[in-house]
Design a protein that fits this description.
mainly alpha; Na+/H+ antiporter like fold; single chain; globular
């Protein structure tokens, strides 16, 4: 009987995977024809086929399968985003990236927390916990958007880099506030700053080391033993980079992002691949990233709880509107304007204010808070999903339009 039950679970899981791929392929085609980022449509379809609507798929948020998809999918999309960045651009805007990924996260968390305290009337510590969970942006959303919408290089690469770097900061602030909320510790700015530095630096070193090794094995003139298997090398190395950093108590997402940067800039180290090999690798990475995008956002949509959304709906919309219209612009202008090296224009900063989609990482943090029965966890989870829906359904489809209006579109 147990074996039979396991087979039935396997069949149901396989059917769900097949449905996601089949429906997602059609959604991707429609999004391409409509010339809008596909993540918005994928999220809507995920809600429609989820257990609270059509009931075609039902993969629980606390299942091992769901967590594997989130971990590996977000990691691979981060790798894809890192591979699209260039050293020549990053060295001109790195100050903005560092400041907005740290101080910008604190500003966003504080303003959003203040809004939650006023709107919901919850204690300050619960409000700040919500602000911290929502403070980081989402690379799994932003990377595919900038793959499809060609925005001026330095703007796109700054926003993508920020989204990768601010995840660690968002998580550290969230768990620091959580320790106070649960009565298990006191928040220490010095300790948190040290923890952020450790997570970031170890993640960068791990990603850089594995990235250099990967580039050596697939593109070095003498040591490219695995050039014919470059796609498989990227898969193994993404998993390896994540767990190498995670095992050292550092940011696994930071490691895979830096790994991608190293592979994408392998020519800077004198490593080259033939045009055919490069094309094969690019096609593989693009296809795999698309598949991961389908699974992540369709399953994310399927987790929406309509009952909780209705309970906290109006207040959630107000708080998320303040997050989008007040907290984000304040963080961007406060962190980017002083950077005299980058010399950001008003239009560039305005565009960065609008591109702060919420997605996988805040959803994962909200899920962890629910599992730990943190104070106000249900409210936090509901507002997080409202933020995901509002930012992805409003900001993502208007990215190209805004870029064109601000003169930042690079056709």
């Amino acid at each position: 009987m147990e074996a039979s039950g396991a087979v039935e679970v396997a069949k149901q899981t396989l059917l769900s995977g097949g449905l996601i791929l089949a429906i997602g392929t059609v959604v991707g085609f429609v999004a391409q024809k409509c010339k809008i980022p596909d993540v918005a449509l994928i999220l809507i379809v995920g809600i429609a086929i989820g257990p609270q609507a059509l009931g075609l798929i039902d993969i629980k948020a606390d299942s091992a399968l769901y967590q594997i998809i989130l971990l590996f999918g977000a990691s691979y999309i981060l790798f894809d985003g890192g591979a699209s960045l260039r050293f020549s651009v990053l060295k001109r805007v790195w100050i903005t990236i560092v400041v907005i990924s740290t101080i910008g996260v604190l500003i966003t968390a504080a303003v959003t927390g203040f809004a939650a305290h006023v709107v919901f009337g919850v204690p300050w510590i619960v409000a700040l916990l919500l602000g911290a969970a929502l403070a980081s942006t989402d690379p799994a959303t932003l990377v595919p958007i900038f793959r499809q919408v060609k925005i001026r290089d330095r703007v796109a690469q700054t926003v993508m880099s920020e989204s990768a770097f601010n995840d660690a900061m968002g998580a550290i602030v969230t768990f620091g506030v959580l320790a106070v909320a649960m009565g298990t510790g006191e928040f220490s700015f010095a300790t948190s700053l040290f923890e952020l530095f450790k997570q970031a630096s170890v993640g960068i070193v791990a990603g850089a080391a594995l990235g250099y090794l990967g580039a050596l094995l697939i593109a070095h003139g003498r040591w490219n033993f695995l050039s014919d298997h470059a796609p498989v090398v990227t898969l193994v190395a993404v998993i390896g980079a994540y767990f190498a950093a995670d095992g050292l108590q550092a940011s696994g997402f930071m490691a895979v992002f830096v790994f991608g940067i190293m592979i994408g800039n392998k020519d800077a180290f004198g490593f080259t691949m033939t045009p055919g090999e490069t094309q094969k690798l690019d096609d593989y990475v693009m296809t795999t990233a698309f598949i991961m995008r389908l699974f992540i956002f369709m399953l994310l949509g399927a987790q929406v709880d309509f009952h909780l959304m209705a309970q906290f709906g109006l207040g959630g919309i107000i708080v998320v509107s303040i997050l989008m219209m007040v907290a984000r612009p304040l963080a961007v202008f406060a962190c980017a304007m002083p950077d005299r090296r980058a010399k950001w224009s008003f239009n560039e900063m305005l565009f960065m204010c609008w591109t702060r989609e919420t997605g996988v990482i805040p959803a994962a943090l909200a899920g962890l808070l629910l599992g730990m029965k943190a104070p106000g966890a249900e409210m936090i989870a509901s507002v997080t999903f409202i933020a995901i829906l509002m930012t992805i359904l409003i900001q993502a489809p208007t990215t190209k339009w805004l870029g064109k209006r601000l003169g930042l579109l690079d056709e």
